[in-house]
Design brief:
This protein has 479 residues and is an alpha/beta fold. It folds into two domains: 141 residues, Aspartate Aminotransferase, domain 1; 272 residues, Aspartate Aminotransferase, domain 2 (3-Layer(aba) Sandwich), CATH 3.40.640.10. 42% of the residues lie in helices and 14% in strands. It has 19 helices and 14 strands. The strands form three sheets. Strands 4-10-9-8-7-5-6 form a seven-stranded mixed beta sheet, with helices on both faces. A four-stranded antiparallel beta sheet has the order 11-12-14-13, with helices on one face. Strands 1-2-3 form a three-stranded antiparallel beta sheet. Helix 11 runs parallel beside helix 12. The structure holds 3-[O-phosphonopyridoxyl]--amino-benzoic acid (PXG). The site of 3-[O-phosphonopyridoxyl]--amino-benzoic acid has 17 residues, from helix 7.
Length: 479
């Protein structure tokens, strides 16, 4: 016999249960049982994790009652902000009707269909087909499988190499981490997998030397041309890149970079894949980073902002050139995931996109909060610790330097030591900023208010001041 359904009060209690444990007990249980992603286990066991219990708009609350400004939109994903009941209700309603069914054996479901139609309408005209997965990593694994299969069907099985960039980030699965250009990730797990080749990145501040940004943009783009010449167009399947590198440190390419890449790829038999996992769904003040830069990719990998992180879902946009050919040729694509086209996730995505559209969040980033935050963020460049402040849309970075106007970071000693100190101080000051090496980065929700933006910049400045004092104490700054 089925147990009686719980009453409303009991349900509310059950839903709250994770937040009702005493903090110390949760921290102990966390240290005892939970292996966190991208974490030094020894260090975390000693220090213990912070327990997040609630969030609303751009603000997080931890179990000690501290409120923190979420400068990272969760992890580059809560574009519509936290606490949107509309998304929760859409998921709830869908779960009541059909929580889950697969799309494998000639079956489908309404939310997945309507979402695919919606995504086609929001994107460039070449995109009319969507392949679903649950994460950005899975989306990129799909890209690798799909492009290699496509070329093999076209009678060009030698076209296998995928070009990507050093310090790019494309996920943490075997293919995702291989596409990414993060050496510490390659070192764990014998990566990259075969036929992935990395070219240099368009990181002017770090690697531009004496070139102007514009000169360096052309120079970095021509690394692609050089790689094609060396490896041979006949062996290359695709080039994958983020419009702006996110996890690599908000690396905004010089203005000359993308036009030069377009010139190089024009008339080549090389598929162009945009990894829009961070830039997609409004972050740059356009629906996609490719729209912002005027690029016309053959495929796009998206995730994060697709559901604003409320449920895990990703989508690969497949251009007509590829999709029509696959449909014409037939034959099984021997690839897919249990949760491809998950109806509840798709319902959440539709509700999320409805919010973005209704509230005009994409235009708001372009015309209002983007320029507003940028004007204030760039004032931080006058700080003795800041070598460069940059921002596009709602993605920003501060390059910490030991002395100005140097662009060298070596003087901090171990790379990342200043960034880690700054990040910890920022947390204490109630602002979540991420440190990549010695670069501080932010990517707040697109609903950031003007008051939130003022607060963010004020807390960032206070954090820089305190970081400077601490680094001075350690003898790591010279000014
Ligand atoms: N592509 C890009 C551009 C990403 O930023 C992925 C793919 C992989 O997505 P999943 O959903 O598999 O994580 C990402 C993810 C960080 C950080 O520290 C960034 C990501 C993930 C985890 C940490 O900035 N981006």
């Amino acid at each position: 016999m089925r147990a009686p359904e719980p009453g409303a009060e009991e349900m509310a209690t059950m839903n709250q249960i994770s937040n009702r444990y005493p903090t110390a007990e949760l921290k102990e249980k966390d240290a005892a049982h939970y292996l966190h992603p991208f974490t030094d286990y020894k260090a975390l066991s000693a220090e213990k994790a912070r327990v997040i219990v609630g969030a609303d708009g751009c603000w997080l609350t931890d179990s000690d009652g501290n409120r923190m400004l979420d400068g990272m939109a969760g992890l580059w994903c809560t574009n519509v902000g936290h606490g949107r009941m509309e998304i929760a209700e859409a998921a709830f309603e869908q779960m009541k009707e059909l929580a889950y069914y697969n799309s494998f054996f000639k079956t489908t479901n309404a939310p997945a269909i309507l979402l695919a139609e919606k995504l086609a309408a929001l994107s460039q005209p070449q995109f009319n087909h969507i392949f679903y997965a649950s994460s950005g990593s899975e989306a990129n694994d799909t890209v690798v499988r799909l492009v290699r299969w496509y070329w093999s069907l076209k009678g060009k099985p030698k076209k296998k190499i995928i070009l990507s960039r050093k310090n790019g980030y494309h996920g943490s699965t075997m293919a995702g981490a291989s596409l990414g250009g993060m050496v510490p990730m390659h070192e764990q797990g014998d990566l990259p997998i075969p036929n992935i080749h990395h070219i240099p990145q368009p990181y002017w501040f770090g690697e531009g030397g004496d070139m102007t940004p514009d000169e360096f943009g052309i120079h970095a783009a021509r690394e692609l041309e050089k790689a094609i010449d060396v490896l041979g167009e006949g062996n290359i399947a695709a080039f994958i890149a983020e419009p702006i590198q996110g996890a690599g440190g908000v690396i905004i390419p010089p203005d000359t970079y993308w036009p030069e890449i377009r010139r190089i790829l024009k008339d080549r038999e090389i598929l162009f894949v945009a990894d829009e996992v961070i830039c997609g769904f409004g972050r740059l003040g356009a629906w996609f980073g490719s729209d912002y830069y005027g690029n016309a990719p053959d495929l796009m990998a998206t995730a994060k902002g697709l559901t604003s992180g409320y449920l895990p879902m990703s989508a690969v946009f497949v251009g007509d050139k590829i999709a029509d050919y696959l449909k014409h040729e037939g034959g099984d694509f021997n690839h897919g995931y249990t949760y491809s086209g998950h109806p509840t996730c798709a319902a959440a995505a539709l509700a999320n996109l409805a919010i973005i559209e209704r509230e005009g969040l994409v235009d708001r980033v372009r015309d209002d909060i983007g320029p507003y935050l940028k004007a204030r963020w760039l004032t931080l460049a006058d700080h003795p610790l800041v070598g460069e402040a940059r921002m596009t849309g709602l993605m920003g970075a501060l390059e910490l330097v030991p002395s100005k106007p140097s662009r060298s970071k070596a003087l901090f000693g171990e790379v990342g030591s200043a960034g880690t100190i700054c990040r910890d101080i920022s947390f204490r000051n109630g602002l979540v900023m991420r440190a990549v090496r010695d670069t501080m980065i932010i990517a707040p929700p697109l609903v950031l208010t003007h008051a939130d933006a003022d607060e963010l910049v004020a807390r960032a400045r206070k954090t820089l001041d305190e970081t400077w004092v601490e680094l001075k104490k350690q003898g790591k700054v010279t000014a």
